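Risk mitigation, structural track. In case the binding assays with protoporphyrin IX containing FE fail to produce interpretable data, a predicted complex structure has been prepared as a fallback.
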Amino acid sequence: MIATELHPAVKPVAFLLGTWRGEGQGQYPTIEPFRYREEIRFSHNGKPFLIYTQRTEAIDTGQPMHGEAGYLRLVGEGRVEFVIAQPIGFAEISLGRVDGQRVDVECASVGRTPTAKRVSSISRSLWLDGDTLRYELKMGMEGVPLARHLVANLQRAD
Ligand code: HEM
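Fallback model:
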């Protein structure tokens, strides 16, 4: 395989590259709190974006839970565009910034399949804290203002 050079535009988010494993906690005003195990992978192919995949499973049984995949596009002057597809029927387009070792995005739109739940907004923050990758995800639904759904801590696995 040919070694691919990192695209210069992607350097501000190079700290995300690799495979990360850890655990998260979920909550929302309408549900019981829960915990999960998670693997996140950011890779690149020499183009001005990172390739993102995420999968989660139940801590006790190992049963698959949520997963998602997409692209983190670097579009200049620290601006990022995050495009994410979710199996629960959402296509998320989120816009924001990278600042040091932190990425904050807010959704510009959430496309929903006809049977998906009525999610109206998503906001995500990911940041490196020492060797730990942390993130927080909030979501709003029709009838529920933006509220925390997930927090997680992950360590680099490779
Ligand atoms: C952006 C990512 C995510 C979105 C948009 C999302 C969306 C939702 C929605 C809309 C609900 C239903 C709330 C209600 O009916 O009032 C929900 C519930 C739930 N979510 Fe998430 N979720 C996401 C990520 C995750 C992840 C990563 C996990 C776990 C690994 C997870 C686990 C759960 C669980 C266990 C529930 C409660 C049971 C259920 O309704 O299925 N979610 N989520």
